[in-house]
Specification:
This protein is an alpha+beta fold. Helices cover 29% and strands 21% of the residues. The chain contains four helices and six strands; from the N terminus they run H-E-H-E-E-H-E-H-E-E. The chain has helices at residues 21-33, 48-56, 93-102, 119-128, and strands at residues 35-40, 60-64, 67-73, 107-110, 133-136, 139-143. A hairpin with a 2-residue loop joins strand 2 (60-64) and strand 3.
């Protein structure tokens, strides 16, 4: 919603601004990893891209007004996407999702690569922890290992 506010001597009323993006993203991801229903109150519109990406991973999450309701299925509750997963709409949460997908029992192809400049250190950490990571032809595949 766009609203123009002109200078005034006095403003009476209530203004509710959306919550902080970083905190809301973390709360949505934690609700995804939990078991059962989670609610993130006053979530900003910026989390809608993350909700769309989580939907492609079998997570039921929906916006209800200012709140996001997530049906969490636990740490291993993601489902494999049918085609390469574009993490672009998830924004900065894309890197967090790369780490979570690396721990799944199925392999996930990701394209295009999220946050390319911050990805190599993350992949190094994941590989050092034993995660299955493969990069070929501009596509990153993570997960599917022990």
């Amino acid at each position: 919603m766009e609203q123009v506010v002109r200078p005034a001597r006095k403003v009476v009323g209530e203004v509710r601004v959306p919550g902080e993006v970083g905190a809301a993203v973390q709360a949505v991801v934690l609700a995804t990893l939990a078991e059962g229903e989670g609610r993130v109150l006053n979530a900003p519109p910026a989390v809608d891209g993350l909700i769309a990406v989580l939907g492609r991973l079998g997570v039921t999450a929906e916006r209800r007004g200012r709140e996001v309701v997530v049906a969490g299925h636990g740490v291993r509750g993601f489902e494999p996407p049918s085609e390469p997963l574009d993490l672009g709409p998830a924004g900065e949460a894309g890197l967090l999702l790369v780490a979570l997908l690396a721990g799944q029992s199925f392999a996930t192809r990701l394209a295009p690569l999220p946050a390319a400049e911050r990805l190599p250190p993350l992949l190094g950490y994941l590989t050092a922890m034993g995660a299955a990571v493969d990069q070929a032809d501009g596509t990153l595949t993570v997960g599917g290992g022990p």
